[in-house]
User: What shape does this take?
Amino acid sequence: MKFDITLIFIVAGVWAALALAYALAPWSGMIGYAWVWGFGAALFLCLGLALRRAANAFDEKEGTR
Assistant: This one.
């Protein structure tokens, strides 16, 4: 489960890097794509944080931590 959460954070990082690349592109039409990629990065970051919190709560409940 921890590896899956790590992958979610990696995906969020890739999406954030793509958002930054599109935001810094010299073409003015790319700023819309930056918003899309940035919103996706924020969604994956929130998902990763929620999954990590749930996994920690489960570990504490089971006493494996």
